[in-house]
Amino acid sequence: MNMQLLEKILTAYGPSGHEGRVAETIREALAGHVDEVRTDVMGNLIAVKQGDGTGKRIMLSAHMDHIGLAVIDADKHGYLRVCSVGGIYAREMVSGHVVFENGVCGVIGADEKAEDKLKVSDLYVDIGAQNREEALARVSIGDVCVMKPRVTKLGEHRLASPAMDDRIACYIQAQALLELGEKTKNTIIAVFSVQEEVGLRGAKTAAYAAEPDLGIAIDVTDTGDMPEMKTKMAVKLGEGAAIKIMDYDVICTPSVVELMEKLAAENGIPTQREVMPYGGTDAGVMQMTRGGVATGAISVPCRYIHSEAETVDLRDVQACIDLLKACLRA
């Protein structure tokens, strides 16, 4: 496990629409290990590893962006009023620490008169300003803050951090490319996509341009191993890579699911089946590009998604890397 690379990817600033620092971190890691690295007009980072001409065109997609809060104004006391960039759960943000791209830090508060069910419009960011003028001299309307990076080891195998969704998948995708080594028969178009959290935007345009024969998304998925969960899921931390069967946006191509399960069995890779009755990933738009693409997804079990303590098990991460490499060599 390349923990240095993983921490660099996890801690890079990169909310939806501002993924440049993440892309640069990954570009540096892949330099010299792939045949081409480019950035498209959307900001997707695309790494290409050419095959020997006898295989398929395989598109991978893991998104670089994560959720944040955009400044829409400041009040007379210097508190920043904000709106969501991606799927923000307001109650998860209260008392959290955030940081802007320019390094300005803040903490999240909420209007005391707000109802029990907080909305993002009830939140404010305290950056230590005493009035509106001081606040807007330090940050501008439209600037986006994210949960301040902090990587925490939990026990022997688990790691908690903001932006695990979906930087852990960016790491998996990059590490698989680094470990592939020799030329494969398949041509691999590895997309590190932008703006997934606001509508799968980067992967949609990248898939259209790539014209793949096979698409594989790598993303996190919820787990069902926490107390008194409203939604029951079979996925558990530490039980291996999750092979997606379906979610709200995609029903994975049965032949791709079958291939993944076959490769996992042949290579002794621990896996579990995933049905997530909500949400979606880049797989949804890859499957529907042009005339349609055979599509599957490898998911990383993750607790506390869209919080500052998104938690994964590194044994599952390794299983995802191993399964992805097996798919790319098949």
Brief account:
Helix content is 28%, strand content 28%.
How would you portray this structure in words?
There is one protein chain. β4 and β5 form a beta hairpin. The protein is built from nine helices and 17 strands. It is globular, with a radius of gyration of 20 Å. It has 330 residues and is α+β, with helices and mostly antiparallel strands. α1 (3-11) packs antiparallel against α5 (164-180) and α5 (164-180) packs across α9 (314-329). The chain folds into two domains: 3-66 and 162-329, Aminopeptidase (3-Layer(aba) Sandwich), CATH 3.40.630.10; 68-147, Elongation Factor Tu (Ef-tu), domain 3 (Beta Barrel), CATH 2.40.30.40. The model has no long low-confidence stretch (mean pLDDT 96).
Features:
17 strands, 2 domains, alpha+beta, 28% strand, Aminopeptidase, 330 residues, Elongation Factor Tu (Ef-tu), domain 3, 8-stranded mixed beta sheet, globular, 6-stranded antiparallel barrel
Question: Can you lay out the helices and strands and say which pair or pack?
Answer:
Elements: H1 3-11, H2 20-30, E1 36-39, E2 45-49, E3 57-63, E4 68-74, E5 80-85, H3 90-93, E6 97-100, E7 105-110, E8 123-126, H4 132-138, E9 144-147, E10 152-154, E11 158-161, H5 164-180, E12 187-193, H6 201-210, E13 214-221, E14 241-246, H7 254-267, E15 271-275, H8 283-287, E16 294-301, E17 310-313, H9 314-329
Parallel strand pairs: 3-12, 3-13, 13-16, 14-15
Antiparallel strand pairs: 1-2, 2-12, 4-5, 4-9, 5-8, 6-7, 6-9, 7-8, 10-11, 11-17, 14-16
Helix pairs in contact: 1-5, 5-9
